[in-house]
Every structure is written in C-alpha cells, then in structure tokens.
Design a protein that fits this description.
It contains eleven helices and ten strands. It is an alpha+beta fold and 337 residues long. It has two domains: 86 residues, no CATH class; 224 residues, 2-Layer Sandwich (BirA Bifunctional Protein, domain 2). The strands form two sheets. Strands 1-5-6-10-9-8-7 form a seven-stranded mixed sheet, with helices on both faces. Strands 2-4-3 form a three-stranded antiparallel sheet.
Length: 337
C-alpha cells in the first residue's frame, strides 16, 4: 500500500470512529464538548491529518486535501445536528430536574349557573326548605289551568309558549314556561306543612338579546301551612337577599300581578345605587289551593320565582345573559371555586 493509500484509509477509519463515538453521546454537554475538541479542535485528530499534507507530493495533495476537507465539513454538520436533536428530546434518558417548577394542570368546574343555583338553594335550605326538581315537559293543566291562568291569557299564545306535537288523553304538552307547575304537583302529593324550592330549566318562544334567552333557569319557592302570613313571605325573601348579596342588603317590595298569587309583589334590591327587580312573589291564590284539594280557609301560603342567571349577572357583573350558553372557556374559567 502506498503512502497516499495509507492516508486515505486513515481518513476513512477516522470518519467511522468519530461518527460512532458521537452517536453514543446523549445529554452530557461536557462529553459533547470533549468530542468536538478531540476530533475538530486545534490539536484534534483531524488537525493531525491535515499536517500530513505538508509531507506528501503535490499530486497526492490533490487527492488527500479534498478528502480531509469533506470529512471536516461532515463532522461539523453531524455534530451540530446531533446536539440539536438531543435538545429536542423531552425524555433525556430518564434525567429529571427536581428544581423545575411544577405544571399547572387544568381541571373541570361547575358552570356559573350551577354555582348560583346551589348558592340560592343553600340559602333557602338553611331556612328549612326542601329542594325538589320537576318535569321540563309539562301539560297545559299544570302549566296554566291549575295556576289560575285563564284560557285567553297571552302567555298561552304561541309567541310565548313552545307547544309540542304530542298529547296524552287529550292533554296538550309544552316545554314549561316556568317552574310554577311544581306548585300544583307538590300540593297534590303532600299535605302541609310544605316548604320547597324547585330549580330547573324553562323555555319561552322569544327573541334573545343581552337580557333575554329562550332557554333559562328559574327557582320556584313554595310554603304552605296554617296561618302563613305576608310578613313571613317578606321575612323569608329578605333573609335570602342578605345571604346572597350581603348582610347589609336593602330590599323593596312593590305590588305586582301574577294570576296564581293574591296579593302579588315584586322584590327589588338596591344595587349600585339603583333598585333592580330580581323576583316575583305573593300569597298563593285561593283558587290554586282549591284546585289541588286544599281548603283556603284552613291553610295559606306564599310562592316566589327567581331567575338565577340574573342574580349571577348582578353579582359577577356579567352584561350579556347569552354568555351562559356559549361554552367559551375564557368566560367559564372566571368562575373557578
């Protein structure tokens, strides 16, 4: 073998050894730097080969020189690629840095409507009220008739009520427009004393805007017993307002009309310097009591209905009721508790 052939063979051997050694290295920066110095450094093995060029004839230099330069370029490129690939690997051969900060893991949470419903129900629960739920598909009898709502009342019109193409024994069905049907259903199946709140969904055929939705929630309340008076209605709702909005909350009652109560009132709270209505209430109408088999001369009661979304809008400064239905995490994540 000539001297030139020997040098070319040495170059090929150096290439194989260098690449093999580099492939064995992982995340240790010191080892990578040692490899670079050993093969590509000023006094490295590649530099030793280049010094041989001065000792061989010019004709041989034309063969050996490009070979050494190609090897130098290849080792440099392979070294850089290998180092970059190592930095991209998440699992660095089982290495774990205990000084790194922990990851914040996201978790699910109750919907803001669920949170305010639970808060309101808890307030009434602390006053002895039972929590029940009812049907979302109702009959005309319970949604209107037993609540003293006349057959010609505007609420029965298709513009307010979502009627269903279904009937049972001649009874028309609808998506309930309020949770008040549970008043009659509860009184038909229970004897006084009764103290219940009924949270649930309601549906009305109307256009949506910042303060109105066709699907919304309501919490119905009912108390029936001997000698229940209007003062007990006011005291109960005043206590609820203090539990939900703060112990110094002021309330105002004004006359209002609802077919299933007599007398009827609305209750407002003083919020940011303005009176804002949050619920309707009143003493259960004698016709409603008679309709379920009660004797109005023996028992009396009060009822109320409150919209939890509207309460949440006040407490949390939400300006558009439609936000409760858009499932936007930017909105929902504000209510983590």
């Amino acid at each position: 073998m000539t001297n030139t052939e020997s040098i070319l063979s040495e170059i090929d051997e150096l290439k194989q050894i260098a690449l093999s050694d580099l492939d064995k290295l992982h995340a240790d920066d010191d080892q990578l730097e040692n490899w670079r110095i050993s093969y590509l450094g000023r006094n490295g093995k590649l530099s030793s080969l280049m010094k041989i060029l001065a000792t061989i004839p010019n004709d041989d230099k034309r063969l050996v020189g490009p070979k050494i330069n190609d090897l130098k370029d290849q080792l440099n490129k392979t070294f850089v690629d290998h180092k970059n690939n190592i930095n991209k690997i998440e699992d660095k051969s089982g290495y774990f840095d205990n000084s790194l900060p922990g990851l914040n893991l996201s978790s699910g949470n109750y919907h803001p409507t669920t949170l305010i419903i639970r808060e309101i129900c808890q307030a009434f629960g602390s006053m002895g009220f039972e929590i029940l739920e009812g049907k979302e598909i109702e009959t005309e009898k319970y949604n209107f008739d037993l609540l003293n709502i006349p057959s010609d009342h505007p609420a029965r019109d298709q513009w307010d009520t979502i009627w269903l193409n279904a009937s049972t024994e001649g009874e028309k069905h609808l998506l309930r427009t309020h949770t008040s049907p549970m008043q009659a259903r509860i009184m038909e199946n229970k004897n006084p004393p009764i103290r219940v709140v009924v949270p649930g969904k309601c549906y009305r055929y109307e256009a949506t805007d910042a303060t109105h939705e066709w699907e919304f929630h309501q919490i119905e309340g009912l108390a029936v017993d001997k000698d229940i008076s209007f003062s007990e209605l006011k005291g109960t709702l005043f206590e609820m307002a203090r539990k939900i909005f703060g112990s110094d909350q002021k309330v105002r009652f004004r006359c209002d009309f609802f077919p299933f109560v007599e007398p009827g009132v609305d209750m407002s709270i003083l919020w940011d310097g303005k009176w804002i209505e949050i619920l309707g209430a009143g003493m259960v109408h004698p016709k409603v009591l008679s309709g379920v088999g009660y004797d109005p001369s023996e028992v009396s009661g009060f009822a109320f209905g409150i919209g939890p979304e509207r309460v949440s809008m006040l407490k949390n400064k939400i300006k558009d009721i439609r936000n409760f239905h858009i499932n936007d995490l930017r909105f929902l994540s504000q209510f983590v508790r």
